[in-house]
Design brief:
Blueprint (H helix, E strand, L loop, with lengths): L4 H9 L5 E6 L4 H4 L18 E8 L4 H11 L5 E10 L2 E6 L7 E7 L4 E11 L2 E9 L4 E6 L5 E11 L15
Antiparallel strand pairs: 1-5, 2-9, 3-6, 3-9, 4-5, 4-8, 6-7, 7-8
């Protein structure tokens, strides 16, 4: 049986199913400890941008790897990811998947589903990139923590405000509570 051309084209354009994996992290001593009353419920960190770095990552490059390489090259120890745009050949993200320690993460990978990089934010803490992004496929929105394997399509642009003189070391430490 021969399919009508429009239906055949639609089937060819259909995105692949996403691979979803749930990972339960092992219990650590920090997971079992109660909140410390000496740690404030909320606190501020004051600082200022030393400079702003705009990173461009080209076609078929792993987005996370490209950002990490430029963070290293530009000697960014601490900073704020202010923005990110572009298009991707596929995606690999994770989100938190429970409410109690230890954490459980759900990883969603669809390396052949093209999408737009709608936005990105996050931090660079002690040279480590912690990036979150929002993606759009035309059918749905995907959000999560950027994981390796997310490959750039046309280009991706990521802007980082560098704050090397500011101590951000506890900002993403889940045990500081």
């Amino acid at each position: 049986m021969k399919l009508p051309a429009a239906l055949a084209l639609l089937l060819l354009a259909a995105p692949a199913q996403a691979q979803v994996t749930v990972i339960q992290n092992p219990v650590t001593p920090a997971d079992a400890k109660p909140n410390d009353p000496s740690v404030p419920d909320a606190y501020t960190i004051n600082g200022q941008f030393e400079r702003v770095v705009v990173i461009r990552v080209k076609n078929k490059v792993d987005l996370l790897h490209g950002i990490e390489e430029m963070v290293k090259k530009e000697n960014i120890r601490n900073g704020v990811i202010l923005a990110g745009i572009g298009s991707l050949r596929g995606y690999h993200v994770h989100q938190i998947n429970n409410r109690d320690f230890p954490t459980r993460n759900i990883f969603t990978k669809s390396l052949t589903t093209p999408c737009d990089l709608i936005g990105m934010n996050g931090y660079v803490v002690n040279g480590v990139v912690h990036a979150h992004m929002s993606l759009g496929t035309g059918e749905k929105a995907i959000n999560g923590h950027l994981e390796p394997g997310t490959e750039v399509f046309t280009y991706a642009i990521v802007t980082i405000g560098v704050m090397n003189g500011t101590d951000l070391s506890k900002i993403d430490d889940k045990s500081y509570r």
